[in-house]
Design brief:
InterPro entries (chains A, B): Alpha/beta_knot_MTases (IPR029028), RNA_MeTrfase_TrmJ/LasT (IPR004384), SpoU_MeTrfase (IPR001537), tRNA_m1G_MTases_N (IPR029026)
CATH architecture of the largest domain in chain A: 3-Layer(aba) Sandwich
Subcellular location (chains A, B): Cytoplasm
Radius of gyration of chain A: 27 Å
Oligomer: homodimer
Distance between the termini of chain A: 75 Å
Organism (chains A, B): Novosphingobium mangrovi
Catalytic activity (chains A, B): uridine(32) in tRNA + S-adenosyl-L-methionine = 2'-O-methyluridine(32) in tRNA + S-adenosyl-L-homocysteine + H(+); cytidine(32) in tRNA + S-adenosyl-L-methionine = 2'-O-methylcytidine(32) in tRNA + S-adenosyl-L-homocysteine + H(+)
Order of helices and strands of chain A: EHEHHEHEEHEHEHHHHH
Number of strands of chain A: 7
Function (chains A, B): Catalyzes the formation of 2'O-methylated cytidine (Cm32) or 2'O-methylated uridine (Um32) at position 32 in tRNA.
Low-confidence stretches of chain A: 165-178, 245-249
Strand content of chain A: 5-15%
Structural class of chain A: alpha/beta
CATH topology of the largest domain in chain A: Alpha/beta knot
Chain lengths: 249, 249
Amino acid sequence: MSEQAPVIVLVRPQLGENIGKAARAMLNFGLTEMRLVSPRDGWPNPSAGPAAAGADEVLEGAQVFETLAEAVSDCANVYATTVRKRGVTKPVVTPEQAAREIHAAPGRSAYVFGPERSGLETEDVALARAILTVPINPEFASLNLAQAVILCAYEWSKHVPSNAEGNAGLEQPTLEELLPPAPQEELEGLIGHFERLLEDKNYFWPKTRAAANRLTLRNLLTKPGWNHLEVRTLRGVLSTLENARRPRG
Amino acid sequence: MSEQAPVIVLVRPQLGENIGKAARAMLNFGLTEMRLVSPRDGWPNPSAGPAAAGADEVLEGAQVFETLAEAVSDCANVYATTVRKRGVTKPVVTPEQAAREIHAAPGRSAYVFGPERSGLETEDVALARAILTVPINPEFASLNLAQAVILCAYEWSKHVPSNAEGNAGLEQPTLEELLPPAPQEELEGLIGHFERLLEDKNYFWPKTRAAANRLTLRNLLTKPGWNHLEVRTLRGVLSTLENARRPRG
């Protein structure tokens, strides 16, 4: 049995555009169930569709409720999203912790988001089992609604068991352990050196293939992440080749 | 010595509004260094400021370059963000893997983002050491520029060593292990039951304190995450109190 995906609850959202953006954010990470509590301008809202950028199935399936209590009545794990606060009386979790809990907990879960300007009221937070706060720059905390939604949806998606396997399966880059990869300008110097030499040898011929050949070379030389010493060694090799050619030419 | 934060490079961005939104996304997670490669409408762009919602320091410090190679010339670890692709010739990493690598690697790092509509060109990707792809719903991949930036910035911030400690220090909720927390409607029933009884006893008096008292009660009853059996037991307790009162009344 697969778990039920969490619902996204928007409490008294103001702009239809933001509802649409939230729908788009959700669907990017596979969340499809949106619930609206007393949207200011009613529902449906003609501004939502264009902002959803194709996430129409989320908007079409959105349910409207009068109160948050009704909207989450079938949910066992309700997370109220707020900015960082003092003196809260409930556990405070990060999006990552919430995602882990939601995947581990039986029962339906809900992420609850407040109105754009004001956020959730104390009465709304009182309905939740826990508070979800995104750890953010304390000197500039300015997440909009869709951004808060996308961070929660992204973390939830990351912790879907099948996705976790998929991500782990991605090829990992090897990091140079003793020396960092050389800065890009050293690499550019090396690539330029190669190209100069190869041009002299008519490597980039016929002309119709030249761009593709340069790209192949660039990809090949960028891949290893050579460090400063390795780049220097290679430059030395190229200089040697270059100089050896001149006496003959 | 603290590590240098990565730079965010926007290649040929089209709309000033999106540059502003990217700046806002960055600063939320403590990233301040933005570099622009050939912005379509020049720089500065009057549409950027309003969209930055206060992240002016990022825009004011933004540097402009003609080519991506110049923009990342001092960077040892360059990540090119792209949508999921087949046949790539470089390591592909998630935002989380990139964040871990950036914190572990010596040298400056850069996250590179392409133009809004088209994304990075093959020639841009060729400059990078690795490709960064957000694992996304394959049936609806529709991240906008600022959203891609915020997910990378968020993951980078999560893995700042001091933040990692800070998050781990948040109080963790206790999850009922054997039975899930009761659905919200059962909890509402319990809270309503309490309130009905307490109203009869003039608990919510004086009236000026009633709202605050109800809130205190609601917070107190919401906190434990009681399961279905626990809620039923409590309802039984309340019913007993209620019935015992009636014969006397």
